[in-house]
Amino acid sequence: MISDEVKAQMRAIAARYPQxxxxxxxCLHLAQQTEGYITPEGAQAVAQAVGARVDEVESVVSFYSMxxxxxxxxxxxxxxxxVSCYLRGSDALLARLEERLGVKxxxxxSDGRFTLDMIECLAACGMAPVLQVNGEFVENVTxxxxxxxxxxxxxxxxxxxxxxxxxxxxxxxxxxxxxTTSASGDSGEPAKENS
Amino acid sequence: MAEQQELVNLTIDGRxxxxxxxxxxxxxxxxxxxxxxxxCYHPRMDPLGACRMCFxxxxxxxxxxxxxxxxxxxxxxVWTDTPKVKKGRQGTLEFLLIxxxxxxxxxxxxxxxxxxxFTLRHGPGDSRFDVRKRHxxxxxxxxxxxxxxxxxxxxxxxCVRFCQDVAMEDGLVMKERGFKTEVGVEENAPFxxxxxxxxxxxxxxxxxxxxxxxxxxxxxxxxxxxTVCGNCAVGCNVRLDVRxxxxxxxxxxxxxxxxDGWLCDRGRWELDTLNSSKxxxxxLLRKNGELVPVSWDEALGVVASTLRQVISTHGxxxxxxxxxxxxxxxxxxxxxxxxxxxxxxxxxxxxxxFSQTGSDxxxxxxxGSLAGLEKASHIALLGAxxxxxQPVLDLLIRKAIRKGAQxxxxxxxxxxLDRLATGAIRYAARQTGAVARALLGVTLAEGLTRGDYATAxxxxxxxxxxxxxxxxxxxRAAEVxxxxxxxxxxxxxxxxxxxxxYDEMATREPTGATLAADTLMLAQLTDNIGRPGAGVGPLFxxxxxxxxxxxxxxxxxxxxxxxxxxxASRQALGAAWxxxxxxxxxxxxxxxxxxVRALFVLGADPARHATPEQLARLExxxxxxxxxxxxxxxxxxxxxxxxxxxxxxxxxxxxxxxRRIQVVRKGMTELPGARADWEILTTLARMLGLAWxxxxxxxxxxxxxxxxxxxxxxxxxxxxETGLQWPLRAGEIGADGRKIIVGSETVxxxxxxxxxxxxxxxxxxxxxxxx
Amino acid sequence: xTINAPNTPETQSLPLGPYPxxxxxxxxxxxxxxxxxxxxxxxxxxxxxxxxxxxxxALAEEVKASGLRGRGGAGFATGVKWGFLPKESAxxxxxxxxxxxxxxxxxxxxxxxxxxxxxxxxxxxxxxYATRVRHAFIYIRGELPRAYxxxxxxxxxxxEAGLLGKNILGSGYDLEITVHPGAGAYICGEESALLESLExxxxxxxxxxxxxxxVGLYGGPTVINNLETVASLPAIVRLGAATxxxxxxxKSKGTRVYCLSGHVERPGNYELPLGTPLRTLIxxxxxxxxxxxxxxxxxxxxxxxxxxxxxxxxTPLDFESILAAGSMLGSAGVVVLDEDTCIVGAxxxxxxFYRDESCGKCTPCREGTYWxxxxxxxxxxxxxxxxxxxxxxxxxxxxxxxSFCPLGxxxxxxxxxxxxxxxxxxxxxxxxxxxxxxxxxxRKRDAAAV
Lengths: 195, 771, 450
Description:
The complex is a heterotrimer.
Chain A: H1 4-14, H2 24-35, H3 40-50, H4 54-63, E1 75-80, H5 83-87, H6 90-101, E2 107-108, E3 114-119, E4 131-133, E5 136-138, H7 143-154, E6 167-168, E7 174-175, E8 191-192
Parallel strand pairs in A: 1-3, 6-8
Antiparallel strand pairs in A: 1-4, 2-3, 4-5, 6-7
Helix pairs in contact in A: 1-2, 1-3, 2-3, 3-4, 6-7
Chain B: E1 7-12, E2 15-20, H1 25-32, E3 55-58, E4 65-66, E5 76-79, H2 83-98, H3 114-122, E6 140-141, E7 146-148, H4 158-167, E8 173-175, E9 182-184, H5 197-202, E10 208-210, E11 223-228, E12 237-243, E13 246-252, H6 265-269, H7 272-275, E14 284-287, E15 290-293, H8 296-314, E16 319-322, H9 329-341, E17 347-348, E18 378-382, H10 386-389, H11 391-402, E19 406-411, E20 423-426, H12 432-445, H13 453-456, H14 458-467, H15 471-478, H16 482-494, E21 498-503, H17 515-525, E22 535-539, H18 545-550, E23 557-558, E24 562-563, H19 567-577, H20 589-595, E25 598-602, H21 606-609, H22 612-619, E26 623-628, E27 640-643, E28 652-655, E29 660-664, H23 677-687, H24 697-707, H25 716-719, E30 724-725, E31 739-742, E32 745-748, H26 753-767
Parallel strand pairs in B: 1-5, 16-17, 16-25, 18-19, 18-21, 19-20, 21-22, 25-26, 26-27
Antiparallel strand pairs in B: 1-2, 3-4, 3-5, 6-7, 7-10, 8-9, 11-12, 12-13, 14-15, 14-27, 23-24, 28-29, 29-30, 31-32
Chain C: H1 9-12, H2 35-40, H3 45-53, H4 56-66, H5 78-82, E1 94-99, H6 108-115, H7 117-130, E2 135-140, H8 145-160, E3 176-181, H9 191-198, E4 222-226, H10 227-239, H11 241-245, E5 255-262, E6 268-273, H12 278-285, E7 295-299, H13 319-324, E8 333-338, H14 343-357, H15 363-380, H16 387-399, H17 406-432
Parallel strand pairs in C: 1-2, 1-4, 2-3, 5-8
Antiparallel strand pairs in C: 5-6, 7-8
């Protein structure tokens, strides 16, 4: 359900733009966050908030890959399969996840806990292969790390310290590789390797 | 008059052409008759550049250019037939065909399909595609009348752009993206539009088809006739498509001055008057209380003798005629000519209340034009529901909105335009006149006047204020928010150009008698008249409502708004007709319904509007002669019924709501047994001893051109493909009266005689060599 | 640092040393994403300096003098691009920062946003000030929620600190910044599609002309700059254009953040002066091809650019040199392929991306990529025909230069260049029904399945 409060939030987002229609995408994100997917009610609320017609809203929804009009699992795992991840084993990773979760890409497990899907290049090519769990990055996902990750997720522990952290390498480059050992907290700042 | 356009010189395939600056190459090629194939481009919509079909080479451009998006420039050198162009077009066609089902043998578009035609003329001949085509279930309904076959769709977005950009309503949208792209409707936004058929016509392939046309014919079996739609007062130009004497559809025949190339679904598909099996196919005569089929000779003999007898027994004033808002000008003209020649002015039709009709010979018309709407900064609709009554006018209002016009919808009921309107003002039913009075009251009370009209008419205005109560009273009567009206009045007064339109029939409401005069005064006071983008007037509903008035289907007005009371006009007309015309103003519609002995009804159904007393009276008439397509409620009560023909079966002219006289052409064989109204009237006149010798509607029109000043010089030839708007000549004529826009200039009513004579001469020259 | 810079008089005399981190200046500082830390390390000093010492036009001149070129892909000179905005306009003018990073092989903008969001804000203000813009938008790819949160927070903090909003730092200059999330569409990285998307529509590219500089967002004059471009501005202003311009080559000045990925030992983002040879990036910084394997191919500028071969490894990484070598520097996403990579498989994967990300507006890209993928699939699976190879080339010819926007062209790069370079591999797939190299080489496909 889209509460009055969420509707008010949508109007507030619309007010940030010179033209309310510009708030289409952020309001749809909000609708999807609120209900798990874009429902007819959600589309209607967005249409009202941004001053568009419902058919316009729904046409926009189907253009962008992040929106879904079907309910998804509680944990949505999206594996990047674009070229850099492909070169470093994303297909094997996807296969491993399919096997463990018992679903094919694009499907949601019958218990509703997981949805597995592929996604286009996630701008994390230096730490390939990568995946996202509900938008949170996990990088360098070797099959072993995939297993460890699923174990955590199945225990309901979330991504935790398997999430990515930037750090400066000895060579003066930046990567999140090997970030499981990074001690940094939740902020985005990098930690120095071997510092 | 066309605005001065700057022209540039270029060559296409080595041939020089001058094209307007800003025009796209495609249009310049059209001028030369060079075909540049297009799919996504549509001359009535913004260029999209998506289909990549219209490739041309332009000297100095390294890549192929798209002719639909590249504008012409001085000295440009364009080539449409080089190997590079051919390869580009072949490539695009090959791409378009990889997912196209090639089910032409069962596709309704076959034979008029741009994909078929262009593939033949520009395509690669065969395909190298030997992998998997996309498949979809086919077809799926997208609206009540339209089916979508997604496999055939080439994603040109014409239909979607029409719905989104032109109609500006829920309808077809693009869904998904990339190779999964499809057109469709959203579940919660049904495609329920009176303009929906346009997408079928625009679809360059067979993706969108009309339910009622599917599998009915092949395009090459159609007989196509350029004519004018008979469904409403807009008068959209159409092509009537007929197969084996059944009208299957009307397609648009773009006329910028009228329809902007669009058509509504009523016009496109509601062709019942042409096709119905309920049409009358034989004259009927009441014998022993029953209407029974008789021969034409017998029926007309009875009519003639009845008319003669009524006149000889009770005098010509015992005879009355109710004419039609549907018949052609020629027929309406003959109808009143017949009655007037028989000695009576008892002639009328069902129309709005225009207080001054006849008294000054001034026509009550919209002083602006359809094409001028887009120049308006403000449009106020009073009691008017254009979407349902004059659909394409509603579409033109939407165009004006896109160009920045603010629209105020002042109606008792919610209106389809509300969502796009700046203001939607509601009031109690049948109170349009009170609303207009309140608007005028605000304008006067707040001194929102412009120009010198107020000072020049100070006395008249003072009288008006004395005669009318306060703004608040009027607003209360109309149950309307007076603040909203005040705001609107201020907008109108400050408008760069305001167009104020009201429904003709709103003048018949209890408060409507002053509606026409009050809105006119409102426009005059605020200087919203007599210039492009401004104006005021009634919106007529029927295809020839205005023509009926023009032709003198009025008790006090001769053809061309010459007052019956004007002796000179009467004399001149009488002389032309070889008849003695009565100087007595005739009885009007309502009076006739209760005060004549014999009533001749042509193409009207007064029984529908009649009071119980009038209805009882109709049944007791000495004679009720009804000429119609159907056995109407009135016809059921007739003594004689004469079957007429629809506009699809005869020639003639209609005059639309912005005074455009347009040619109607016969597109199908006459229904056996029925006759054109002009033929019936001519035969009857001759039986009554009148020397009528018309061989065709063109003859009648020529006569109209001679006797009705506003139609001076009008002939079929002069009307051409796009018609003419009266008055035919621009210029400031006369001192006091209503200003009318002609082209981009203003004329003022009434036309002075001298200027009119010049006008005659001018048009006569243009029309010489008439058929 | 373990990298030995080339020991030449030129490099040794550079003011900040041979391999300075200019854009990624303080990226190793803990909590640099916090306003006070960022300020403690010189943050917002450039802004103060610009507002104090430069009129907008002078700032634009300074950026022009720095030689900074767009970091999104096309490499157009930033200061010159700003100059395309009309001096006067009836409608408001806008700046859009393009952070819709999604070119396969590219991951620099995400890092900049996640690590140093205030630098993004500061750079945006500088760009807006130079172009006399009063409302700027930062369009961040929807799949990067952390980047969005970081930048959004930084903007909020900047408002609270008087660095945004009315009368910034008492200069009289007002600016609003709206951070905008995308929703999953590569095409929205194309500047006009980005504008459509920002206006709440499907991300279809717009017809040009009119160009955004004249008719852009909401019909107003609009400048669109890549995020790294904008993030480079604080350092340029702080160090001075002259210092910045000492790095790089004659026509490609400054540094770039090179995104190194694929089959290398140490993938990651490396900020290096433009003109640094590919070999230095791959071997010295990246540790060379992984697992001791040989190099097979390099994609130098994201998956939209042509392949380079091992013999071209000494090509300097600057716009002109890479162009001369037959490819493009693009987004500086350098992807390394080792000797065991099946080129047909890799190209198929890249082509699938363009098929899925094509917006579908124009025929060649929509239908062509669909067809290309099917042909590549059947070749990769060993069911292809030899004529498919030339057909692929001809389809590419019917797409490239004929599509509505550059996405179509981009889709053809890997195919055309790989057929040119490794036609034998394609032919091998047809004749042997198997890959020439890699795991697929041992997995002979069943020809009867054709």
